[in-house]
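Two quick folds needed for the group meeting slides. Do the first one here.
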Amino acid sequence: MQKEPTKRELRQLASQLRCPRGQMGLDIAYVMNSSNISMIVEGIAALSLSPNNTILELGHGNCKHLPKLLEIHESLNYFGLEISRLMVEESQKTNATYVQQERAVFQWYDGVHIPYPDQQFDKILTVNTIYFWQDPVAFLRELYRVLKPGGKTVVVFAVKEFLYDLSFPKYGFTMYHRADFKKLIGQTHFKILRIKRKKEFIKKPTREVYSAYLSGHHTHKKPVCRMLQKNSESKTRTSV
């Protein structure tokens, strides 16, 4: 008979999902990349990348998906920010060739302040990080600040209706309905270009899955892809 994870185990899992650490962090990062790959690919496609674009991704994990992005155009340049120092190191190892070619840069940051100047990036992508933003409106304004006028930001996440049925998001995740996210955007200069809904599958956190996070149990997932654009008019170029 299967046993449900304890509260302590669920808290540990939620903490690792937020910021992977140690061997458990490496194992979870592998599974996160595998289980989230459909959402990541959807987000990359939504960016509508053009030659010579400079891309910022926040919360890239082990970044095994980077070839799927950089192979779209040879002239793309990628910058990745992570709150997990372990994931920065792992991404640098995994993508050593791109780093040597100076097409990819990986850097640690505090999850609050984006360490780049204004209007630096053509496109910004983040998948399954919104649950951990300390001040969502302030962070969206930071994204707006580093985005070039007319640039695009894609935010991909699973909606509250799905996450609430799981066990671990109750420990440190902030969950959002679609309407909640629209309210956040309403407090920034971003303009919502498109909202795309899609169903897919992820691994379910049963006891067996939690032990290694590698089991094959599945449940429905409802990710939401939000595409945001920075208005090119001068009056909206300054963050608030």
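Then this one, please, same format:
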Amino acid sequence: MKKLLIVLSICLYSTFNVFSQCIPDPSIPLTASGIFPDSAQGFVAGTIGIPYSQLITVVVPADTVYLGFTVQIDSIGLQSYSNLPPGLTLAASTPSHYWHGGTKGCAIITGTPTTEGSYKLQLTIKYIAASGLYTSSVLDTDYVIVITPDQGINNIENSFNSVSSNPNPFSKSAEITFNNSSSDNIVFSVYNLVGKIIHQETIIPQTGFNRITYTPSVDITQGIYLYKLNNGKQVITKRFIYSGN
């Protein structure tokens, strides 16, 4: 588990000479090895033409277990990354783009998105042990940034908000809740990470608090899925994790 947390923390390193002045979340202790927000919470969605910002805090453990042995970590870093949404860049809080074991740092993804889509980050990482040995590998992360079209500020102010899914991860069913101030019907859709629709229904919402219960079909597999609410004026896309029955 600790090794997985180390792997996830790598997404905080830029392959370019970009230095971020971000500040790690002070509420996260050094004992909480991993990346925050975690993959269940995910990164915030973006909108075309609207400035985007996602702060990421990482805690790198001092050691990990490899082939049954405890290995002290010198540092880990990112050799390359790909599939950020067009218009966005990633900057690490260290100029070298490497962090030593037992430290805490941060990175920030910023910019103005230009292209709609669902973007899953892919990384090539390098681990350096205290002994000087190192290894590199290509990593598919569970972090996806969803970019949606600009629907206009006035429509957003007069539509729905406070969208969340509970529990997350879920097994038998998930409840998607939101506040609504519009009379428009809402299309509720669930997608896999390659964009295939696996569920869709039209909701007739009431003014104020609303709840949608989603029960997955028996043929879907465990993993991360995207759910979308669309009333024709505003689109909100978020993620949840299906853990299986």
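Slide caption for protein two: The radius of gyration is 20 Å.
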